[in-house]
């Protein structure tokens, strides 16, 4: 599902409501491809912050030959490859070596978001002998450790064009999601009310008016005990954020662009944005608190939300991984308790758009690089919409699209256990050996074919999500219908366009409350089976064809 209207109308909406390339690349027949390094003899086992230093542990089964018996530690910016960065340390080579160097936090030479590699000098030339590795404990220097507002999974995309705070409270909402575009928050120094932020020796400016509106929104939701999730987007529209558009995305027309990790200007600006946002919304400055940041929206949908002109999966994931590393390290170095999520859609093994990548392939490649270059506690934001999107039956999808198999074309709420089990694999676990946080940050059901189907689907989806301890959010898309989406039979709101509550409003209100039994009874009546039994026994009904049966 495309979140095309969450942030674009932000200025007006909040005013009313308030009254992220790996390895080297070569151009081959298929375009840009990764030059994989095979069998590099030295392993960087860890890179950890210790006090004001970075300490790296190195190991090797066989010390590579060299002119001087030294290991050299290079610190590369994410857009650099090989021995092109700065040498930050040298140490006597050995099979097990510890080496340290200054972190240089918040200076022009900050190593916080750089990648490190080991080289040796052979015949007077520096030769890379290890893979790259990032710092994996940025929270060690965090000045703020805000208590998270983990009060429940029940969430919604709020309608900020109406006075909805009381309704959000009445609904029992525990989480909201909203978009923030870098276009909206970046500013010129000369703009009225511009907010200066000096970071790593450079001063950047943020739009004081827009930031103030976000402040007001976040504080208001926090007041009601509601956790805030923000999707960080790049629309490429502001003259003050053009350095954040990747060079291979410049000139395209699409709703979302890959972030620029290809040069110094883009990388430095992105670092400052991550640090600024995590600091300001740490809950410690009277500006509100954001616990969860989602980098991009459905980034496997390349031609829509993470655009570059390359159709190489490796290239596009590489860009995203670099942006993710920057945002993760910069944010968690400010607020230790924030979570950073990637974002993929439900097109697990089938893509409806030839310009997209399969969600499973994207997730696998993302995890490969994250594991190879230093495992961190990233989270997964997944959108398990029905297939097709306008299908009204969350409990009875088309058999051709929804299957009880890892090869299923789509993963919806019906077969969500496939994703959960997949994330239990040892190579997908976080550094503590636990299953990662999984956020269903966007999910919705249409009433275009009847209110009853929407009612039952919401109950089914919520209860299914609540049955998995790995799921940390179920965020319903949306509070109010959106006219442009309804043209595609996507009447996803709890309110219609005239502001009238649909029956789904009452049933969602009852979920997670003392009246949940009433919601279950209503859904069981519509479905024709006890909903608790259906969930607990993982009963998976499917139907032939792909049309809507009324």
The strand line-up of the biggest sheet is: 11-12-15-16-17-18-20-21
Portion of residues in beta strands equals 15-25%
Low-pLDDT stretches: 2-37
Sheet/helix structural class: alpha/beta
Oligomer: single chain
- Major sheet attributes: 8 strands, parallel, barrel
Helix content: 25-40%
Q: Termini, distance in Å?
A: 23 Å
Q: Per the principal axes of the C-alpha atoms, what is the gross shape?
A: globular
Radius of gyration: 24 Å
Tell me, rounded to a whole number, the average pLDDT.
92
Work out the number of β strands. 22
Number of helices: 14
Spell out the blueprint of helices and strands.
Blueprint: H1 10-18, E1 24-28, E2 31-35, E3 42-50, E4 53-60, E5 70-76, E6 86-92, E7 96-102, E8 115-122, E9 125-128, E10 133-134, E11 154-156, H2 165-171, E12 175-181, H3 182-185, E13 195-199, E14 202-206, H4 208-223, E15 227-233, H5 264-280, E16 292-295, H6 302-305, H7 313-332, E17 339-344, H8 359-372, E18 379-382, E19 396-398, H9 416-423, E20 438-443, H10 451-466, E21 471-476, H11 483-486, H12 503-510, H13 516-527, H14 531-536, E22 541-543
Parallel strand pairs: 11-12, 11-21, 12-15, 15-16, 16-17, 17-18, 18-20, 19-22, 20-21
Antiparallel strand pairs: 1-2, 3-4, 4-7, 5-6, 5-8, 8-9, 8-10, 13-14
Helix pairs in contact: 1-4, 5-7, 7-8, 10-12, 10-13, 12-13
């Amino acid at each position: 599902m495309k979140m095309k209207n969450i942030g674009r109308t932000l200025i007006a909406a909040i005013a009313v409501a308030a009254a992220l390339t790996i390895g080297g690349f070569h151009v081959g027949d298929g375009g840009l491809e990764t030059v994989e390094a095979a069998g590099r003899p030295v392993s960087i086992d860890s890179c950890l912050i210790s006090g004001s230093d970075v300490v790296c542990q190195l190991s090797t089964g066989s010390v590579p030959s060299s002119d001087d018996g030294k290991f050299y530690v290079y610190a590369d910016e994410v857009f650099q490859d090989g021995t092109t960065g700065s040498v930050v340390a040298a140490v006597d080579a050995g099979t097990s070596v510890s080496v340290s160097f200054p972190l240089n936090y918040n200076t022009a030479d900050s190593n916080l978001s750089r990648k490190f590699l080991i080289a040796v000098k052979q015949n007077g030339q520096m030769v890379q002998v290890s893979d790259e590795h990032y710092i994996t404990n940025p929270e060690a220097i965090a000045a703020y450790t805000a208590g998270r507002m983990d009060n429940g999974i029940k969430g919604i995309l709020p309608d900020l064009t109406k006075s909805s705070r009381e309704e959000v409270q009445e609904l029992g909402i525990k989480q909201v999601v909203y978009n923030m575009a870098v276009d909206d928050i970046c500013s010129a120094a000369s703009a009225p009310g511009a907010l200066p932020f000096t970071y790593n020796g450079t001063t950047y400016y943020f739009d004081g008016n827009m930031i103030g509106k976000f402040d007001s929104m976040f504080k208001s939701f926090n007041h009601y005990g509601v956790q805030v999730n923000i999707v960080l987007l790049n629309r490429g529209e502001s003259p003050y954020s053009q350095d954040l558009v990747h060079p291979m995305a410049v000139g395209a027309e699409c709703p979302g662009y890959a972030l620029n990790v290809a040069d110094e200007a883009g990388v430095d600006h992105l670092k400052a944005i991550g640090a600024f946002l995590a600091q300001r919304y740490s809950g410690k400055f009277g500006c509100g608190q954001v616990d969860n940041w989602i980098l991009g929206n459905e980034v496997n949908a390349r031609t829509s939300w993470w655009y570059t002109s390359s159709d190489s999966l490796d290239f596009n994931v590489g860009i995203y991984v670099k942006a993710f590393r920057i945002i993760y390290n910069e944010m968690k170095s400010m607020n230790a308790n924030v979570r950073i999520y990637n974002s993929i859609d439900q097109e697990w093994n089938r893509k409806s758009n030839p310009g997209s990548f399969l969600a499973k392939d994207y997730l696998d490649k993302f995890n490969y690089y994250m594991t190879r270059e230093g495992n961190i506690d990233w989270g997964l934001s997944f959108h398990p919409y029905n297939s097709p999107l306008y299908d009204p039956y969350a409990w009875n999808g088309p058999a051709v699209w929804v299957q009880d198999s890892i090869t299923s074309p789509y993963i919806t709420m019906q077969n969500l256990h496939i994703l959960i089990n997949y994330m239990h694999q040892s190579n997908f676990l976080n550094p503590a050996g636990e299953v990662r946080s999984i956020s269903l940050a966007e999910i919705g059901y249409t009433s275009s074919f009847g209110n009853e189907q929407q009612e039952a689907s919401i109950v089914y989806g919520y209860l299914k999500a609540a049955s998995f301890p790995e799921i940390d959010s179920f965020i319903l898309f949306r509070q109010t219908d959106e006219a442009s989406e309804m043209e595609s039979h996507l009447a996803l709101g709890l309110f219609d366009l005239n502001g009238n509550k649909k029956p789904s409003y009452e049933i969602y209100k009852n979920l997670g409350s003392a009246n949940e039994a009433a919601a279950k009874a209503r859904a069981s009546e519509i479905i024709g089976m006890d909903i608790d039994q259906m969930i607990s026994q993982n009963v998976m009904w499917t139907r032939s064809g792909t049309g809507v049966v009324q």
